[in-house]
Design brief:
Number of strands: 17
Order of helices and strands: EHEHEEEEHEEHEEEEEEEEHHHEHH
Distance between the termini: 29 Å
Structural class: alpha+beta
Helix content: 25-40%
Radius of gyration: 21 Å
Strand content: 25-35%
Strand order of the largest sheet: 1-2-6-5-4-3
């Protein structure tokens, strides 16, 4: 992905966001080669204007192989990925950054999808005792980032993802370390943070991923799914086995559909009959991966009580940290036995 027309602030933020993935360009054709150019005005087609006005529909075909998309009802985008070009209308810096974030995720993510590597809405760590990777799955604002930061205070804990985990049907999870985004104030031990207004999510305090770069793990076997839920009342955190119905629903929502992830926009970013066959293959592959996760991992529910102060939040996080570092592996075995031999076929080729 090549970006042009960005202000210094926009380029700096995007560079921080994807710093782990910056590599020297290699000879030969890249899997994704798109120039994303930010400019003052985008010539929007008359059809697109009518669809937006009459139906509030965000996408429409245009001339010369272009498609038009309106992001967040105010940022026009004209793209022709087959030609390797995407034009973004300039808005305020925060909105432009968010649109770039979605476009990069969607373009690169579809390439990964076609290779059988899919995005799960989860923060992921590895355990110090070699127990594989844990994925903390849940909605935005449930506390994934706060728990993740607390877990990473133990230098022996490895880090794979903050919000988007890359998984496949072989139960392999790959590193995707992006910045930490806290809804509340940034932790006191964060040496650097900035405020960022994300549409629909309010103000977030963003901490660069470089602060935990030493703990990044390239890949690991995914052994445990922890579905997070928030209790509105104060109390003690609880851990229980997840029902098969809850686990299936959560994976359908956070993996197959990709709710609250940029991949939901892929239908709009490449809406054409030509691309529907590829999207069908992606959907089937996501379903296979969800089934593999259901059969080959432990599924737990961790209920987080309402916590007002930072001290209370630390207590909640400490409970899960004790589990992750292997302090109660016997308890986990009693809650949900390890996957049986029938499911080991999903782990072939590791």
């Amino acid at each position: 992905m090549r970006l042009s027309g960005l202000s210094a602030a926009e380029a700096d933020f995007v560079g921080r966001e994807f710093a782990h993935f910056v590599r020297p360009r290699r000879a030969g054709r890249a899997a994704v080669d798109v120039l994303v150019r930010v400019q003052e005005r985008i010539p929007v087609s008359a059809l697109h204007r009518r669809l937006r006005r009459w139906l509030s529909w965000p996408t429409a075909p245009g001339p010369r192989g272009f498609h038009f998309v309106s992001f967040f009802a105010r940022v026009p985008v004209a793209y022709a990925f087959e030609r390797g070009l995407c034009l973004v209308g300039r808005a305020d810096a925060e909105t432009t950054i968010e649109v770039l974030y979605v476009i990069i995720h969607a373009a690169v993510g579809e390439c990964l999808d076609l290779r059988g590597v899919h995005r799960l809405h989860a923060a992921t760590v590895t355990t110090a005792d070699g127990g594989g990777a844990w994925a903390m799955v849940g909605a935005s604002g449930v506390g994934k980032t706060t728990l993740l930061w607390s877990l990473l205070r133990d230098p022996a804990t490895g880090w794979l993802s903050e919000d988007v985990a890359l998984v496949d049907a072989a139960l392999r999870v790959r590193a995707f370390p992006l910045r930490f985004a806290f809804r509340g104030a940034a932790p006191e031990d964060a040496t650097e943070s900035l405020r960022f207004q994300r549409l629909g999510f309010g103000t977030k305090h963003v901490v660069a991923a470089a602060q935990k770069a030493a703990q990044v793990v390239d890949a690991a076997d995914l052994r445990t799914l922890v579905f997070l839920r928030r209790e509105p009342r104060p109390g003690d955190p609880t851990l229980a086995r997840a029902s098969r119905l809850r686990a299936a629903y959560s994976l359908a929502r956070w993996l197959v559909v990709g709710h609250e992830l940029p991949q939901i926009w892929q239908l709009f970013i490449r809406f054409s009959w030509k691309s529907m066959a590829g999207k069908g293959r992606i959907a089937r592959s996501r379903v296979r991966t969800a089934r593999a996760l259901l059969r080959g991992t432990r599924q737990l529910v961790y209920t987080l009580p309402h916590a007002e102060g930072e001290a209370e939040r630390d207590v909640v996080a400490a409970r899960l940290r004790a589990l992750v570092v292997g302090a109660s592996s016997k308890l986990l075995q009693s809650i949900n036995p390890a996957p049986n031999a029938r499911n080991r076929r999903f782990n072939r080729g590791k």
